[in-house]
Amino acid sequence: MQENENQNNPAEELDINHLMQIRRDKLKELQEQGKNPYEITKFDRTNTAGEIKTNYEKFEQKDVTVAGRIIAKRIMGKASFCTIQDCDEKIQSYVSINDLGEESYKEFKTYDIGDIIGITGFVFKTRTEEISVHAKEVTLLTKSLRPLPEKFHGLKDPDLRYRQRYTDLIVNPEVKETFVLRSKIFKEIRAFMDKKGYMEVETPALTTVATGDAARPFITHHNTLNLEMYLRIAPELNLKRLIVGGIDKVFEIGKNFRNEGMDIKHNPEFTNMEFYSAYEDYNDMMNIAEELISTVAKNVLGTTKITYGETEIDLTPGWRRITMIDAIKEVSGVDFNTIKTDEEAQAIAKEKGVEFEEIKNTRGHIINEFFETFVEETLIQPTFIMDYPVEISPLTKRKKEQPELVERFELFIGGREYGNAYSELNDPIDQYERLAKQAEAKAKGDEEAGGMDEDFVQALEIGLPPTGGMGIGLDRLVMLLTNSASIRDVIFFPTMKPLN
After folding, report:
1. Which tens digit of pLDDT belongs to each residue from 475-490?
2. Integer Cα distance of 267 and 475 in angstroms
3. 3-state class of 321 per DSSP?
4. What is the pLDDT of residue 89?
5. pTM of the model
6. Closest CA relative to residue 485, chosen from 261, 301, 297, 264
7. What CATH superfamily is the domain 171-319+381-489?
8. Phi-psi region of 232 (alpha: psi -120 to 50; beta: other; left: phi over 0)
9. What is the β-pairing status of strands 383-389 and 405-413?
């Protein structure tokens, strides 16, 4: 098969620089003839390929003007066929010397795969019933100076695809479809939140305090103010400031930045949605998360039963809810309800081979390590893991009956976390003490610990009503709903190390 492909594509054997030089020579010749395509500032197309193919009866034998990139071309003496691809579809065109005239047809034959052209002509069906445009006029709009990857070999190397997303979108149509779905998902999310009475807001991406979650921040410097600043880890504290200010329901879709590792689930720059509602708690956040995700799936995909990889996942509301301690006991047999001290927790961790950092050796931190070691990857169907240790939840309200735990949950689907939610801490005294502990840990070398934000404590002193809040990783949600294996598959331009 490989041998035949090479025979069908002899140009692949030519040096890329030679091919580029041939195209530059063609451009130079056109320019010398006063036909520089780059001087064209506008082209009036009447319809897209998708409109024509969807409504053929309306366009049959009618004149149209279409435009797009040449993706296929077949020269047959005095008549030829070419196929162009535009924003939503591809369409064939019949081009002949009788319609264009000898000079224009000769010029058309020199056009290359990748060139962008405009075609004016009437719509018809060929003998094989393919909807086409019978060209009366063809205009070169942009000369492509670099060849596209050949049809048979395509652009398959993932690293190159992510670096050259523009080429990836041209030669791999399924990639474009993923991003079309991403846009529809975001549109449905916004419509859902609007219907629920939430106000969309924007808060700063540059902050003076690295806080809002446990993560290593990106650090930058503001020259005019001579001030160290951070790219935001999360917009949480600013959104809660707005709740203090009397906006009872807010949400923000925006970029967060975390200076951490990269893998199929993590990109340093990612899109997140956070939303907060006054007079609600984490139980209400579970209800809205379940309704939001199932509604978006239904409206975009037409179903709440989806396939991710080879696994069927049912997003129909009625998701499982279980505490972190009960989930650990269920999977590992270890019951942290009977383990009360840091020393006991450290001993059982060593017995079970669960590693923990010396700086994070409390019972609460070890409970979290047990969960990540034994439980997380087993949570395939949608599951809310509830009631986290206070040590890893500095912005969350304590459980009244178990003050060592907080009213927090995370949402897991397919063994991955998709959302994090709290009954928000609104006690300014407790909040100050927890932030002080975080700042102390940061001073001791914990790069993920947040700093002290005294202005936020001051806002709480003004008064934050009982509030529920949640953050959802939208890139991961798009991965789930488009059956994409890597977060890089759903981000147009993922973070990449430069080649040079």
Report:
1. 999 999 999 999 999 9
2. 9
3. strand
4. 94
5. 0.90
6. 264
7. Bira Bifunctional Protein; Domain 2 (3.30.930.10)
8. beta
9. antiparallel
